[in-house]
Amino acid sequence: MKILIFGPKARYDLYLPEFVRDIPVEPVFCGAPAPSLQAAADHPDAEVIFADAITPISREMMDLLPRLRMIHSEGVAFNAIDTEAARARGIFVCNNKGCNAGSVAEHTVMLMLMALRRGITGHAAVKAGQQIRFKEQFMVSNAPELGEQSVGIIGLGDIGTATARLLRPFGCKLYYYTAHRRPPHAEEELGVTYLPLEELAGTCSILSLHCAVNEQTTHMVNEDFLAHVKPGTILVNTARGQLVDNLAVRQALIGGRLGGIAMDTLDPEPTPADHPLVDLPPEIAGRAVYSPHLGGITSGVFRRAHRNMWNSARLLLEGQRPNFIVNGL
User: Fold this and answer.
1) Distances from the Cα of 193 to the Cαs of 31, 174, 187, 199, 278, in angstroms?
2) Which of 14, 68, 131, 205 has a CA between 20 and 30 Å from the CA of residue 40?
3) 325 close to 310: Cβ distance less than 8 angstroms
4) Residue 77 — pLDDT band, cuts 50, 70, 90?
5) pLDDT at res. 25
């Protein structure tokens, strides 16, 4: 079975499960994140695609692969794949559900702490020989502890749930919004309280995004949403940049509606230096914390993800359904 892989060979070699050596597969490495249609045209007998979560897999590419049976995201997200086109062809679209939940939750808490405790600006002050000056300013800034915060988790899937579990011991008040409210026993077990989205926006001092990208959630953090946010709120995004209206968030930060942002994901990626949430006026630049989309990048995540991907390929070879099908087949 031929598998087109849109991702670095070195990564696949590093995380290759032992059992793959015993199954009849032919991996073909095609590069990423912008696969050419030529790769598909050169390998029309391919039955599987493995693709980085931000690599677009289009209807046009699928049309060049008459034997294609499965498209597997290397991550959890699958919004770059034309799932409807795949469904119409009977092609499974799969993801690595839950493989990165613990890692992204850890990263989320780190970003919250860095935003609250001025991790970036404090680091810069020490390097500039301004330690005491910064410390004295910080002591009169009324800097809060994480445990004093009310945190709104927007999206309570695997990652949102893992984030709630990590935050609970800090003593935070935890609220959540999701499209389908959890049953009372689940809320009690996590220590979370459900609020409608607009009420949650106006209640919480930290808002943390954990939604998938779809028609309903794209640019959900927009001007209307931000109008409900109480002044000084910190916005954390370890989900996808497309959830955020960049210009609306920029204006909310400049105007003080948002007290800070902590972003692991931005739209677009690669992110240019003149991005509206990166190229900020000097007087507010210190209220922004960034990381380069590292939330789900750990060795443990890749081991779990690649084991699941290759296992799904093995299941196809055995005439069975793959794991974690996301396009309704």
Assistant:
1) 44, 6, 6, 12, 33
2) 14
3) no
4) confident
5) 97
The answer to whether 176 and 153 are in contact (CB under 8 A) is yes
Give Cβ neighbours of residue 218 (< 8 Å, ≥ 6 apart): 242, 243
Among 61, 11, 12, residue whose Cα is nearest residue 35:
61
Contacts for 214 with CB less than 8 Å, ≥ 6 apart:
79
Q: State the CB neighbour count (10 A cutoff) for residue 38.
A: 10
Given 3.90.1150.10, 3.40.710.10, 3.40.50.720, 3.40.640.10, which CATH number is that of 101-290? 3.40.50.720
Q: Which two tokens stand for residue 93?
A: 């679209």
Sorted by where each begins, the domain ranges of the chain are 2-99+298-317, 101-290
E strands, the chain, in order: 2-6, 26-29, 48-51, 70-73, 92-94, 150-154, 173-177, 192-194, 206-209, 233-237, 258-263, 288-290
Cβ contact 154:176 at 8 Å:
yes
The CATH homologous superfamily for domain 2-99+298-317 is: NAD(P)-binding Rossmann-like Domain (3.40.50.720)
Does the pLDDT at position 32 exceed 70?
A: no
251 close to 224: Cβ distance less than 8 angstroms: no
- Render the burial of 308-317: b for 16+ CB within 10 Å, e for the rest: bbbbbbbebe
In three-state secondary structure terms, 132 is: helix
- Tens digits of per-residue pLDDT, 78-104? 989 999 999 999 999 999 999 999 999
Write the DSSP symbol of residue 57: B
